[in-house]
Amino acid sequence: MPTVLRWGPYRAFFYSNEGNEPPHVHVRAANCEAKFWLHDLDVAVNAGFPAHETAL
Description:
Layout: E1 3-7, E2 10-13, E3 24-29, E4 32-37, E5 42-47, H1 51-54
Antiparallel strand pairs: 1-2, 2-3, 3-4, 4-5
């Protein structure tokens, strides 16, 4: 899981082999993780982050 960016409690990273999914980045903090599509900066999956933390 190469780390792209760290800021505060957040770590942005990607997995090197996720098949044919569109470009995206995962963000993790504590026990929460979300996946963001890079093309339109949309939340693909949110597992535990409050809505105000994933609002773009």
